[in-house]
Design brief:
By secondary structure, the chain is an alpha+beta fold. The chain has a single domain (about 1-255), classed as Rhomboid-like (Rhomboid-like fold, Up-down Bundle). It is built from ten helices and eight strands. Helix 7 packs across helix 8. The longest helix has 24 residues, at about 20-40. It is globular.
Length: about 260
């Protein structure tokens, strides 16, 4: 059983619509649809020395963060540290194209991004999000390059940037409660629980440490990029460069945010 965070229980202070959060969610969905659906349906497989490769997998290699390609300056190089955060794994729900990878990331972004955007403003929130994505992807490329197999695989997904949002949320709003629903496997249970953000985020962070350490030593190969999660979470420390000035003054004075 896993508690899936779906919303922050506190009302927004400055605005009612988190436009930047919604724009990021829409962009991630559109990119996934183009790569996984349009290319799958309409583009012919690429011929390689190893046989035909589906076109959407080529897109993952080009736009995902492949440590070997970054270190050897191939493809789009360091730019993939940003583009990788908008690429997600394929999947199906019964017969319909559906990505649990994308769905989970967007739920986390909605749950924690709205309040953080309210604290920063939409433009500064977008800049912070991209900075967290850059830090997470760069650290992942450095750490995963230690593995002879992992260094050839693309790191994809918004989870590194969203981990930065979660880390910043923990710094600014540790006393907030978040609404969660239990998941048993991928099956949601129609119940709602409010739990402290501090408890959930520290628990989530603790789960990233050992796998990230194993990845750095080349001891294990995971389908989840724990190194990007860990680095992205600590990128949340940079949130103080992006928050509104009045909120920063209240934070430094110990007032309620």
């Amino acid at each position: 059983m896993y508690p899936l965070p779906i919303a922050d229980t506190t009302r927004l202070r400055y605005r009612s619509m988190p436009w930047a959060t919604f724009a990021l969610m829409a962009l991630n969905i559109l990119v996934w649809y183009h790569i996984e659906v349009q290319l799958l349906l309409h583009a012919a497989p690429y011929d390689t020395p190893f046989g035909p490769v589906p076109s959407q997998q080529i897109a993952h290699l080009i736009y995902g963060g492949v440590p070997y390609a970054i270190h050897t300056r191939q493809g789009i190089g360091a730019l993939s540290a940003i583009t990788a955060s908008f690429v997600h794994a394929p999947g199906y729900l019964f017969v319909l194209p559906f990505s649990w990878h994308l769905f989970g990331n967007m739920v986390f972004l909605y749950a924690f991004g709205r309040r953080l955007e309210d604290a920063c403003g939409p433009v500064r929130f977008l800049l912070f999000y991209l900075l967290a994505a850059l830090i997470a992807a760069t650290a992942s490329a450095l750490i995963r390059n230690a593995s002879p197999v992992d260094r050839l695989l693309p790191g994809i997904g918004a989870s590194g940037a969203i981990a930065g949002v979660m880390g910043a949320f923990l710094l600014l709003f540790p006393g907030t409660r978040i609404t969660t629903i239990p998941l048993i496997g991928f099956i949601p249970v129609p119940l709602r629980f409010r739990i402290p953000a501090l408890f959930f985020l520290v628990w989530w962070l603790a789960q990233q440490i050992i796998p990230a350490f194993q990845t750095s030593r080349g001891e294990a190969l995971y389908t989840t990029d724990f190194a990007a999660h860990l680095a992205g979470f600590f990128a949340g420390l940079f949130i103080f460069l992006f928050v509104r000035k009045d909120l920063l003054y209240r934070y430094l004075s110990g007032s309620r945010l």
